[in-house]
Amino acid sequence: MGQIPRVLSIAGSASQGSAGIQADLKTFQEFDVYGMSAVTALVANNRKTEQGIFTQPLVSIEAQIYASLEHVGVDALKTGMLFTEEIIKRTAEIIEESQVENVVVDPVMVGKMGSQLLKDEAVETLMNELLPLAKIITPNLQEAAHMLGVPVPETPEDMKAAARDLYHLGPEYVLIKGGALKDYPAVDMLYDGSGMMELESERVQTIHTSGAGCTYSAAITAELAKGNSVEDSVRRAKSFVTTAIQHALSFDRGIGSTYHAAHRLKG
Ligand code: PXL
């Protein structure tokens, strides 16, 4: 019996099911890798209760990560919502100590429904402590601009410049996602310090894209765990997430979900 690739997501739980840990585990399953999770916070914004975000204590997060490392082992991991400086710091320490090489950092800051996923004062810590450990980082346009302190990229050329600048923060690869680019196809830029690869797909006209970013980075993580190159992993993940957006789910109440199992419809 061959070994199944083992993947860990260190991220927030999105109770409504489209994003965060829920998106990651659904995506891992579609790629037939063994999914594990360390939940950093619960995001459950709603109109009935006053509080909607519940951060896990550091001891709980540490324990969850160590449980995956100790009982199963990790071929690739991704980070999503880390929320606070202290969670970022401790997560970075454990990742470094674990010597896991396939580290995907999705620097999530604000959810599609407006939830704050990273405290303002934690951006610097994310840049200094976590980005240098990453094989690949996957910011969207807003996140790239925020980290660099520049205006939001508006053209593919702006995106290329931002990718080059983010590379200097220490990751091996930078993937900037142009899903929110106006007047252009959904083009993403992958930069490795020398070559710029453009990945283009049609722009799907839908508002139901919650979880798209999580799904994309989870798919990259799964492909890396299988031993694929970063370029191949990103190409396959892009195709997977495009299909998931094409078949997005509307629940008739605002922004709906990326459909993580949509690739099965292609047969
Ligand atoms: O889509 C970004 C995201 C990531 N992680 C969690 C989320 C969201 C969006 O709502 O809730 C936990």
Task: Report on the architecture of this protein.
- Helices cover 37% and strands 18% of the residues.
- It has 267 residues and is of the alpha/beta class.
- The protein has a single domain (6-249), classed as UDP-N-acetylmuramoyl-L-alanine:D-glutamate ligase, CATH 3.40.1190.
- Strands 3-2-1-4-5-6-7-8-9 form a 9-stranded mixed sheet, sandwiched between helices.
- It starts with 5 loop residues before the first strand and ends in a 21-residue tail after the last helix.
- The structure holds 3-hydroxy-5-(hydroxymethyl)-2-methylisonicotinaldehyde.
- Residues 11-14, 19-20, 43, 80-81, 108, 111-113, 115, 117, 211, 213-214 line the site of 3-hydroxy-5-(hydroxymethyl)-2-methylisonicotinaldehyde.
- Residues 15-257 form the Pyridoxamine kinase/Phosphomethylpyrimidine kinase domain.
Cofactors, ions and other ligands in the entry? 3-hydroxy-5-(hydroxymethyl)-2-methylisonicotinaldehyde
Strand content: 15-25%
Distance between the termini: 26 Å
What order do the SSEs take from the amino end to the carboxyl end, as H and E? Answer: EHEEHEHEHEHHEEEHH
Shape type: globular
Domain tally: 1
Structural class: alpha/beta
Radius of gyration: 17 Å
- The CATH homologous superfamily is termed Ribokinase
Major beta sheet, strand line-up: 3-2-1-4-5-6-7-8-9
Fraction of residues in H or I helices? 25-40%
Pfam families: Phos_pyr_kin (PF08543)
EC number: 2.7.1.35
Domain Pyridoxamine kinase/Phosphomethylpyrimidine kinase: 15-257
Organism: Halobacillus kuroshimensis
